[in-house]
Amino acid sequence: MKKFLIIIMVCCTCLVGRLAGFEALTQPTSSLIGKVRDSQGEPIPGITVVLKETRQGAITDGQGKFSIPDIKAATYTIEVSGVSFEKQVFTLTFKEGDKLTRSIILKENTTEMDEVVVTAESEGRALKLSAKSVQVIETREVKLQSADLGEVMAKSEGISVQRAGGLGSNTRFALNGLSGDKVRFFYDGIPLDFTPYAFGIANVPVNAIQRVEVYKGVVPIQFGADALGGAVNLASPEVYEGWAGSASYQLGSFNTHRVTASINYANDKTGLFLVVGGFYDYTDNNYKIDVAIPNEQGQLQQETVKRFHDGYKAFGTNFRVGIRDKKWANELSLAGYYGNYNNEVQNSQSPGLVDYPQLGIDKAVAANPFGDLRFTSFSQGLNLHYNANPTKKWELNLKAGYNYNERVSIDTSRNLYNWHGEVVRVQNQPGEFGQDDHLITKSQNYFVRQQVGYKLSEKHAIKLAVSPTYAYRTGDDLLIEGEFDPALDDGHLFDLVSGLEYSGELMNEKLQITAFAKNYRQSIRIESVDPSVEGLQVAERSVNNYGAGTGLRHAWTPRFATKLSYEYAYRLPRQNEIFGNGQLTGRNLELKPENSHNVNLQWTVESKATAKTEWQVQGNFFLRRVNDLIFLSTNSEGVGVYDNVWSANSQGIELGGRVKNLVKRLTLNANSTYQSYFNTSDEGPFASFKGDRIPNTPYFFANSGAEYQLEDVIQKSDRLSIFWNMRYVHLYFIGWESAGLAQYKAQTPGQFTHAVGITQKINVKNIQTALTLEVQNLTNAKVFDFYGVQRPGRAFYLKLTTQF
User: Fold this and answer.
1) Which residues pair with residue 693 across a beta bridge?
2) Burial class of residue 107, CB neighbours in 10 A (0-12, 13-18, 19+)
3) pLDDT over 70 (residue 672)
């Protein structure tokens, strides 16, 4: 009898299920999908969207997206609410089978709230909570200000950005003391060399960036890169349903003009999306500097002059078109770009500095200016991106690209200029910088980033990444006639970086772990013609190295967490280091990769989620033990070659903190970095300086800032922000500490600069407009990043930004 009843119940259940399925087929349900953004166009995670009549609902994810399926045909009241945002209520009528999409904008609520519930994290927040040694710099507010990306990053702990002048000048980016090619740069995971910003990260428009991810010393395998000091990834803004766009125009001192614009469209129903953008920069950089020049009697005297040959112009454009959110592809897209840069050069990067108080000379530049030397360059190419989940456990991610770039150096003038821009003499030998040249360097580059991921379970996964890169480089010095032109040598460079990574969560997600191994391969081939030797000359070499690393994050409490990370890393030599430039820099086929042991110990403590005053304090201890460092050794005539000549240790500590609503609407932040970057070479040309600090490298610097906001100043829901930023860099030696007498040692003076500004935001329907007035270097301090190269003094900027 019992078995019979069970059979009857099963049959009834099946019948009901079939009837329900039949009813569902005969009466198709509807759905609602959309995105929730704030007044600045940024996605808001953790927002609740509810149909009040049925209590059906959803919570937005890290990208602000939500989806409510299985909605019966009727009219509903939609309630959208979240912590710190004003509730929005509207009605929607659904017909059978409707698939409605909505883009919702919520206004921030400035009234106090008793309860805070965090239900999701943004992508930047998720990175901070991962086991990766990463620092995330959000650009939501700073993109409204006049600071460029180099200045924005320099406000963060552990990062030093030195510049040889104003906008567009040569930049030296250092992370925990390691600089240049020791740090790799990416744009949405693509090497920066394959973007329109290939010639300088500091000059990338901030408006083109949503956030900056700084990986310190330990680089995840998905970047497929060799790096010694870490990596920097620039993440572009998300693309949402419908039309959206932004534009900015900045003008200011030294005839500076900066324009950015972008527009994008996405149709979630078809999956089609399109992004088009561009930028234009122009400046004369004719700011005032103090120079030491001889008078009629040949005695040095100080004079204030304007720089006259330091102009910079750059422009570029890019597009991305593709399909997304399909069963066969999360994204399939093609991107193209073009970037063009033109630089006038006023002086060498380290021309010298004179400080003779007894003669009335106070830190004056001592160098002959250039009046004709200039550099031009352009970069263009295409990138392909494909991402898919063939099954729930497998993920495939593929990036590939082609790039062609060309650099031109023109130094053919015989004129000798003074600081007033006058020609004082015509020289017998052409060339202001040294040897005359009209050098063209051409490079064709290809890259592939292949990554396959597999979920062992919900908490454990493995990834395999294989990343080949190929570069072909040649050139032409137009001043050299005949067959023997070293610039015409054909250089072939093939790099292959592979990695295998495990990631997992243990102890109820309190412990996160990642472990990986990498393989670095490089093959080099140079083909040249030497008139003294018959036939084509071929030189080849290959290297093969292994590295490994791990990362741990433990959440001791909801408010306190620590991270420990380690990597034994390699950095393969770059094109310019191996091939030289065909003129002043020779080639070195035997150049070995740099290698380093990198350790980070980070900690973070923050306020309770329910606290009215939000605060966070973080710190990081780092250690870098670097061997076979690559250095450009030059002779008295300026001719040199890159070689592995020294080793060094960099260790230090970073501290930072932020407090919001200490006083209502007041936000404060501060950070500082101290690093001991010392030479440890036991042999070679620098062995006699063992124990000295590495020259020309800041070792102590700090930043602080404050922002105060006022609501409803001009109209309801607008916002007025008053901000202040300060940066301090302690003085540092240009040469080795133990060389020479203390009173004669050259040093870059300490820097203490301030910037203040005011931003007015106004929202009209779905259009957000912001106008910023900013004063940089408020006190008109005499600032130097490189010895003898004076940076701009006080400068005024006005910036208009609009988003829709």
Assistant:
1) 678
2) middle
3) yes
At 195, is the secondary structure helix, strand, or coil?
coil
pLDDT attached to residue 11: 41
Confidence (pLDDT) at 63 = 67
Q: Residue 578: give its domain's CATH number.
A: 2.40.170.20
Q: Does 480 lie in the same domain as 419?
A: yes
233 confidence band (pLDDT: 50, 70, 90):
very high
Q: How far apart are CA 155 and CA 186, in angstroms?
A: 20
How far apart are alpha carbons 625 and 678 in whole angstroms?
Answer: 10
Q: Which domain holds residue 223?
A: 123-347+357-803
Tell me the C-alpha distance between 604 and 658, whole Å: 11
Contact between residue 502 and residue 512 where contact means Cβ atoms under 8 Å apart? no
Instruction: Look up the CATH number of the domain holding residue 96.
Output: 2.60.40.10
pLDDT at 478: 84
Per the structure, the count of domains in the chain is 2
Please give the C-alpha separations between residue 376 and each of 70, 534, 536, 652, in angstroms, as whole numbers. Answer: 59, 36, 31, 38
Q: How far is CA 312 from CA 71, 113, 334, 345, 418, in A?
A: 58, 50, 30, 9, 21
With CA atoms as reference, report the closest residue to 305 among 421, 429, 215: 421
| Same domain membership, residue 190 and residue 53 | no
Q: Which two tokens stand for residue 97?
A: 């089978």
Q: How far is CA 307 from CA 218, 288, 290, in A?
A: 41, 6, 10
Residues 223, 334, single domain; the answer is: yes
Pseudo-torsion of CA 629, 634, 635, 637, nearest 10°?
Answer: 180
For the stretch 360-393, pLDDT in tens is 888 888 888 999 999 999 999 999 999 999 998 9
